[in-house]
């Protein structure tokens, strides 16, 4: 326990570069963003969230580790449920940082009758 406390005192908490969904996005398009740690000491733990809930890899959503400083999140087929607040949270022994961007598609959203 004492060793862990000493180690974390010498560590720097992560700092993340802001990310942004770019371009005019519509239903059926693809998009992706990268979460890049620009400062801090590894090892890092990456977590992606959508609307404050943990984002799980599922059909159409991919989360990949690029290297020890970078995580990529992509959506291969945007739909009405894709809109929301996407957050990358990175932590290490010394602390954490997070950045958020809003995915808000332009254009027609289809509503189906039941």
TrEMBL record:
Residues 14-104 form the Ig-like domain. InterPro entries: Ig-like_dom, Ig-like_dom_sf, Ig-like_fold, Ig_I-set. Pfam families: I-set. This is Titin. The lineage of its organism: Eukaryota, Metazoa, Ecdysozoa, Arthropoda, Chelicerata. The gene is Ttn_2.
């Amino acid at each position: 326990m004492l060793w862990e406390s000493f180690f974390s005192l010498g560590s720097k908490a992560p700092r993340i570069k802001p990310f942004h969904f770019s371009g005019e996005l519509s239903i059926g398009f693809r998009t992706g963003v990268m979460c890049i740690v620009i400062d801090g000491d590894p090892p890092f733990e990456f977590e992606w969230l959508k609307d404050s809930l943990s984002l799980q890899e599922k059909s159409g959503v991919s989360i990949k580790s690029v290297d020890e400083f970078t995580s990529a999140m992509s959506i291969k087929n945007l739909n009405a449920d894709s809109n929301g607040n996407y957050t990358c949270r990175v932590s290490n022994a010394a602390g954490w940082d997070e950045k958020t961007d809003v995915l808000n598609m332009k254009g027609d959203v289809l509503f189906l009758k039941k």
